[in-house]
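Record pair follows.
FIRST:
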Amino acid sequence: MGRNESRLGELLDSRDYCKLHILEHYIARIMGSGKAPGGFRVFPIGVVGNDETGKRIMGEMSAAGLDMQFMRSDPSFKTLFSVCFIYPDGSGGNFTSSNSAAGSLNADDLRSASRCMAAAGSRAVAICVPEVPLELRREFLELATHCGNYRACSFALGDIEEARNMGLIALTDLLALNQEEASALLGSGSGHLLNEELLTEYAATYTATHPALRLVVSFGSKGAYGFEGGRMQYSPAPVLQSRSTAGAGDALLAGVVCALAAGIPFIMPGDAGKTFEGRVLRTGLDFGVLISSFTVTSVHSIHPDTEMKNLLSFAEQQGASISESIRSACYESE
């Protein structure tokens, strides 16, 4: 669109959510957050506005099983707002407010969760995603490091260079990026899109020289790659008629986190196969691609019917089978 251009668009009955909400909704639903005393718990840390949108979002998060004790409302700002656009082929993007309540997150908010993070230690996964300021994200990752938590991150395209310069990549155990974001990290910066072959070569080299880092790179409808210690696995996505790709990358990361928390291996480098049909899903990357693929069958960025039985049924409908390791982990989480 040009600077002075206006266009008409059809207003859709679609619900979009921020990255934190999408990720933690899926993790809470799949892992049964709050269903059993002493069981898996999901704690969002963030800020919404003291407005109707903020109240509705807080209610939805609580209903999904998230523990809301570290969330607060700020009457000085509006709840994070995005104008989302979707093209006829299902692709799209958004414009997100930079002066929302999310940006008022502060060090005291992080410190309020520190006792919980420290008590969980290596059993905790600390997830760090936009739209809060990078300085606060670094403070959160440093706190997670001090507490011995496993650290998972994603960054928007515009964050990549600054995040690398601030040392945030070095404070990350699991990094999830799309093709554009990974190209900015591994190539010549933003605006230079690497093709699949070159990007996977660079990613393998990067993780070989950063052995503590696991890297997930999404290639949209093609699926995703996982990299660890210079080794690689490709997990193809099923061929689908997408209704919306919004939230698919966040769902991918959520699935990988769930699998790792349940003891499923991240990748199996020798696991071959170019199509989803006929594939045995056995790794965290496979599970992430499964949830991501299921997500795009909904017009909403959080699929309202996400639960384990529906995911397993969806995989089988698309011609894949579920390994015994994933099935047993699912039963344990139930």
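SECOND:
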Amino acid sequence: MSVAPSQLPAHIAIIMDGNGRWAKQRKLPRIEGHRRGVETVRAITDATRELGIRYLTLYAFSVENWKRPEEEVGALMGLLEFFLKRETKAMIKNRVRLLAIGRIHELPERVRTQLIAAMKATERFTDYTLVLALNYGARTEVVDAARAYATAVAAGKEKLNDSSWETFRRYLYTADIPDPDLVIRTSGESRVSNFLLLQAAYAEFIFTPVLWPDFTKGELLAACAEFARRERRYGQTSEQLKPVPSALAP
């Protein structure tokens, strides 16, 4: 299966779901599913880079995930720390910039320290960007952006009467990241779970039954092929998108 480079999405965002069910199906502890999911992160990060997809955003930990059992949350934080330690050298070698979106300051100190070090070590790269959504929630993002925007208006840095989406988006976590073209959710669930609600306003969505630990480069290619088949109209009609015949054409 192949897709022309011009038809590939520039930015893919993935809701990585199904680690726990993957483990349950195999009568394994949930943490084993999360460990396997980390290996899938590495494989899909490599696959997007090989395809020339410049931005990949992964929903790694939501603001709601703190409600999970304390043991599981601790294990997830440990896996995140392990991933960052292991993958920083690979990201430097492959010239992949690491960014994070969310309330990063609320992460455990050891994880936050490792995350900041990894972002600092890769900040000079511009070809490919891996974005980790950590302690992230779209509604939380809007609250934080509105607060920052109001502060800027009060300080005279912004004019309220000149407000626009282009102005407001500069206060989102994703200010320096293009909006996703394609959002994929694994595991068969058909909801967005508070993920990039504003940025994904015109994204294409694909919901696959494949559990995240089983999501392969082939699954990614299939999603890209489906994306390429879709017509993105941005509020226009199909007729408006058709090339206008040239008066000089024979």
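COMMENT: Residues 7-137+179-232 form a domain with the Undecaprenyl pyrophosphate synthetase fold (CATH 3.40.1180.10).
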